[in-house]
Every structure is written in structure tokens, then in C-alpha cells.
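FAQ: What does the model actually see?

It sees only this:
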Amino acid sequence: MKKTHYVSVLLIISSICALIGLHICAPVCDKLVELASGNMAYMKCHYTSQVATIIAVIILIVGIERMLNRNSFKILIFSMGLIMIAITLKVPFVPGVCKLNTMACNSTIIWIRISGIIAIIAGIIDITIKQDKKNI
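And it is asked to produce this:
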């Protein structure tokens, strides 16, 4: 297997890890919470799950595209991994997860972060691999 295929395999593993974690092993709750105004809304973890799913699908598409056509998405791969980790942080400007540690969504962030770390590793490998001029 060529060195460039390792990055594609890591990306596919990263996205599968996120999708399995988000939808099978540790799904977020789909309950609605009542707001002070009386309206019903999804909890923060629902939106984090949606964003992570979209990013995981993008990572999967990039991994397949990279394997088939050898196109390099060096910065995109690295930044998608960073975004996967960033959306799980408990800061005001990202969706994040519920503040209670007893909520099920706190186990979901482990899957998202592992997926993000794998994507970051793939991005670092992709940045450090020297492309052969024959393969371009």
C-alpha cells in the first residue's frame, strides 16, 4: 500500500468512527426541552450531533476522493479534525453538549473527539508526505 493511501484509510476510519459513535453506540438524546417562553427546542447536543455528522460525511467523501484520484486536501483534512474537536468544547460560541456530566451526550463527545484526533493525524501525515512528481 502506498503512503498516500494510509491517509485515505485513516480518513475513512475517522468518519466511520464518528458516524457509528453518533448514531449507534452513543447517540444523543432526541428529547425536547421547554424554554422559558413555553416553546419547545432541542438540546445543544442535538445540534452538535448534526454538525459532527455533516463533518464526518465530508471527511468520508474526502477520504474516498483522495483514494480514487490522489487529490490532496492537506489543510482541509487538518481543519476538519480541529473542528470535530472544537464543537465538543464547552464554550459559548460552539454548540457543545449538555452541562450535566450525567447526560448521555457526554459519552458522545468521546467518539467525536477520537474521530477528530484521527483526522488531525491524517492531516499531519498528509502535510509531511512528499508527493512524487510521477503521481501528480
